[in-house]
Design goal:
mainly alpha
Length: about 100
């Protein structure tokens, strides 16, 4: 993300495009706190996976009761990494759609 001085050095159109892209990303990014909360409440049914968009794995967890609880138990160690991966992918898609090169 650019500093305020770098943003002000951009032409007005580019600055507005960057702000719009950042705003769109903020609206669709996933929150790790929510993912962990869903894991606590619906982990055995894959609710946290549904939240992160892993539909096929969620359905597998739903019908196997989280791999008889084992898969759900192991997921607690991987939720934060999965949220980062999902957010990184979503940010790259938004920035590409607006034609913004993302250095992060």
């Amino acid at each position: 993300m650019e500093s305020p001085q770098e943003q002000s050095a951009l032409p007005e159109w580019d600055r507005l495009r960057l702000l719009r892209a950042e705003s769109e990303y903020d609206a669709i990014k996933k929150d790790p706190t929510i993912a962990y909360g869903l894991w606590c409440v619906t982990g055995i049914f894959g609710g946290h996976r549904f939240y992160l968009g892993d539909t096929s794995r969620s359905i597998l967890m739903l019908f196997t009761l989280g791999g008889l609880g084992l898969w759900s138990l192991l997921d607690v160690f991987f939720i934060a990494r999965r949220v980062r991966t999902v957010n990184h992918t979503r940010r790259a898609m938004v920035m590409a759609r607006y034609g913004v090169l993302d250095a992060s």
